[in-house]
Amino acid sequence: MSRSGVITFKGNPMTLEGDELTVGGPAPDFTLHFAGNGLETLTLADLKGKPTIISVVPSLDTPTCAIQTKRFNQELAAMGDSINAVTVSRDLPFAQKRFCGAEDIDMKTASDYQTHDFGRDYGLTIAELKLLARAVVLLDADGKVVYTQIVPEVAEEPDYDAALAELKKLV
């Protein structure tokens, strides 16, 4: 399924591929990759048991995505181990690891570069760019979707306060 009229990129209308997430429904399973001691995987099952914030960005190599990742890293540090936090992009896992090292980011990053299943199943693939749309997804400890925010203009930042207020309700 394709959805038009949801987002723009620098004012140009874009198309999202996949179905929109249903708040109150189960989060689709996923397998993402990250650079740990080699190339490792992260699945939805790995995140169950704690509330989870998924910060979705097109590419960490862009200023707005870097700002978003740094801001959530800073804001979420105070919550410690009471939550899971992950930034998802289509950057290669090793590029994500370099970015986090250079920017002193503690938040986990994971990549949808290999299968693109996360983007499709979460309805966040930008058809024209083959990148992920800017979004924030919150899951409860059981993996149920409790909040979604798709940023209407990809080049703009999300509403951090709204996402963090919803996350704090889960802790």
UniProtKB/TrEMBL annotation:
Q: Does the keyword Disulfide bond apply?
A: yes
Q: Which SUPFAM superfamilies match?
A: Thioredoxin-like
Single GO MF annotation: thioredoxin peroxidase activity
Instruction: Give every Thioredoxin domain span.
Output: 21-171
Q: Which InterPro entries match?
A: Redoxin, Thioredoxin-like_sf, Thioredoxin_domain, TPX, Tpx_CS, Tpx_Peroxidase_subfamily
NCBIfam families named in the record:
PRK00522.1 (NF001808)
* Protein name per its UniProtKB record: Putative thiol peroxidase
Q: Which organism is it from?
A: Crateriforma conspicua
Which gene is the coding source of this polypeptide chain?
tpx
